Amino acid sequence: MAEDIEAKLKRYKTAPFDSRFPNQNQTRNCWQNYVDFHRCQKAMAAKGADAAPCQWYYRVYKSLCPIGWVTTWDEYRQEGTFPGKI
């Protein structure tokens, strides 16, 4: 499984089509991948496992999300006021 993820990460160019978000507006896709990345990191840290599979979410949200949004969300997480469940 880890080998499949590593292979996908090597071939990664930009965010692939996600059938959960078929419309042109990719705001929700950006948000979901940001939240999924941080959930994945938290879950892997709790298990003591390698967080390498989480890099997929990281690359997708970095590809889709404006830098200003990510910066703001990171500040909210540090302050403990982030609106999502991580």
Could you walk me through the main structural features you see in this protein, from its secondary elements to its overall organization?
It is a single chain. The protein is mainly alpha-helical. Helix content is 63%, strand content 0%. It has four helices and no strands. Helix 2 packs antiparallel against helix 3 (55-64). The longest helix has 21 residues, at 27-47. The two termini are 24 Å apart. The mean pLDDT is 88.
How would you sum up the major sheet?
none
First-to-last CA distance: 24 Å
Cα radius of gyration in angstroms = 13 Å
What class do helices, strands and sheet pairing give? mainly alpha
Number of helices: 4
Topology as H/E string? HHHH
Give the helices and strands, then pairings.
Elements: H1 2-11, H2 27-47, H3 55-64, H4 67-79
Helix pairs in contact: 2-3
Write a concise keyword list for the protein shown above.
86 residues; mainly alpha; 4 helices; globular
In short:
With 86 residues, the protein is an all-alpha fold. 63% of the residues lie in helices and 0% in strands.
